[in-house]
Amino acid sequence: MQKAKAFTLIELLVVIAIIAVLMAVLMPSLQAAKRLASSSACLSNEKTLLTAWVMYADDFDGKLVGNGACYDDNHGRTPWVYRPKNPTGGNLANNPASPDITMEDRFRGIRAGALWKYVEDVGAYHCPGDNRKSTQSPPRDCWRSYSISYGFGKNYGRGYHPYESMSEIKQGGLYYVFVEEEHNGSRYGENEGGWHLLGIEDPRHPSAWQFYDPLASYHLKSSTFGFADGHAARRRWMDKRTLDFIETNKTAPGSHSGIATASPDNEDLQWLIEHFIANDRR
Q1: What tens digit of pLDDT does each residue of 58-108 get?
Q2: What is the residue extent of each domain of the chain?
Q3: Whole-number Cα distances in Å, 38 to 52, 98, 128, 179, 218
Q4: Of the four listed, 21, 78, 117, 217, which is most buried by Cβ atoms within 10 Å?
């Protein structure tokens, strides 16, 4: 009888070593592919929300929906989403937010907003690459990944003139409405208010450029934006200071730790300023 041949211990170790090397080589590529796939889903979400944003304006004589979130006062306009709500529809504790906050509390706030009748899917308000739910503890385990720029909707006292109706918007493909934001959720358990930026009033002085509200980088050091003409695009952050700013806000012990963070001559800030609002409204 012939004796069956088997792998020797050394051969098995060699095979295991080869598999380990291949995994080490392939894992970064697989992770990158996963993040790119999440950005495609995120861009789809942005387009869905933009469609709802336009439909709301069509139903209200061209007026834009309230851009604030978590604030009940949106200058007489219903906010596109509300702050997280308890089972009876009341507001939860804020500043600081309650550690007992739940996903259902957050979903109730989304459902109470003005855009819910057009997008009845809480998944459309969340980027698949937004991992706060799995990496942060309540109340920082936020769900909603998007905020509306303060350039669109009523907003007083900011030093510029936001668009208040669809008829005022010219060259909408240049200006973003929806922004991915990674707020630490310390005050409301969600992204807070609308998305604001400093240095908008006079962008000709790069030495005065400053960050204000948080940004995100869920997609290989980049973020998605939804523009007023209905298209969405991904912007890669080029300046290390931008990524540092994002990390600072994400892990800071308090809310808005990055307010008025100077970043002169930052090309990312230049892009954000140029695409915030038209020059004749600054």
Answers
A1: 999 999 999 989 887 767 788 999 999 999 999 999 989 999 999 999 999
A2: 10-281
A3: 21, 30, 5, 16, 8
A4: 217
CA-based torsion, 75, 81, 87, 91: positive or negative: negative
Other Cβ atoms less than 10 A from the Cβ of 249: the count is: 23
In sign, the C-alpha dihedral spanning 229, 230, 236, 242 is positive
The CA distances from residue 163 to 20, 69, 121, 152, in Å, are: 56, 17, 27, 5
Read off the amino acid at residue 42. C
How far are the Cα atoms of 99, 124, 140, 182 from residue 33, in angstroms, in the given order? Answer: 34, 21, 27, 22
Dist CA 197 CA 228 (whole Å): 18
CB atoms within 10 A of CB 81: 27
Mode of pairing for the β-strands spanning 210-211 and 176-180? unpaired
Which residue reads 């009940």 in tokens?
A: 72
pTM of the predicted model, to two decimals? 0.85
Buried b / exposed e over 162-176, threshold 16 CB at 10 Å, is bbbebeebeebeebb
